[in-house]
Amino acid sequence: xxxxxxxxxxxxxxxxxxxxxxxxxxxxxxxxxxxxxxxxxxxxxxxxxxxxxxxxxxxxxxxxxxxxxxxxxxxxxxxxxxxxxxxxxxxxxxxxxxxxxxxxxxxxxxxxxxxxxxxxxxxxxxxxxxxxxxxxxxxxxxxxxxxxxxxxxxxxxxxxxxxxxxxxxxxxxxxxxxxxxxxxxxxxxxxxxxxxxxxxxxxxxxxxxxxxxxxxxxxxxxxxxxxxxxxxxxxxxxxxxxxxxxxxxxxxxxxxxxxxxxxxxxxxxxxxxxxxxxxxxxxxxxxxxxxxxxxxxxxx
Length: 300
Known about the structure:
Elements: E1 2-7, H1 15-26, E2 32-36, H2 44-47, E3 55-61, E4 64-69, H3 79-83, E5 89-92, E6 97-100, H4 110-114, E7 120-125, E8 128-134, E9 140-146, H5 153-168, E10 173-177, H6 184-190, E11 195-200, H7 204-219, E12 223-229, H8 235-247, E13 252-256, H9 261-267, H10 272-275, H11 280-297
Parallel strand pairs: 1-10, 1-11, 2-9, 2-10, 11-12, 12-13
Antiparallel strand pairs: 3-8, 4-7, 5-6, 8-9
Helix pairs in contact: 1-11, 5-6
């Protein structure tokens, strides 16, 4: 099974829309599974026409820990308060004991080391949930959702990919919709991929953030290609993106002008390739570039 990760660096450039339609197109001739790895704001299912109630097998998972106090053992030395880098421990003067802020605690464990009485331990917390949904296009999508105020998104992404691999069976492709940016969940999404599709738009932040995202991809030695969305909004910057791609030996897989159909398709919970069939050629170009690279016609 080949893994294709779709990322953007910058949000709002059409990443999830393109990932969804690419999966639909690939599923016409191949066995596909999708992994929505934007666990802070998962919406690939919506783009594919699935609401939360359409997902089955929702299960709570734990990929993080929080500090817990054994009040009977606490001697009131305050060393835990002094050691907490995240300022997640306050002092209760009336009880002469520390109070742990669950939202601020990162579960780093420093306080457990600092406590001379062994009064603090780390306990697992259910910080996310994972569900599986079947699309009408014949493939499953695995989605993860981080709970409000929780951390550990990178580890949640790893669990999403693991479950997607289990559900894949003999699938030919796994299509991953990564989060925007270059943070921990994006790195977890990209690691182990065979190809990365970088989506951008002709804006200064679009190019800057794409550059950062592809630097990360290069670090892992993964083949990649660029897709330029809304290329006609700023022809000058589009040429700059094309020059950037040429200088770095990265192929431009496809580019498309601004098309309100992308917005209308999202509103109607339908992949744009189905909502507006005239967009098919754009996605066929992306697919052709990916398959050509995976067959060995492009060096990493």
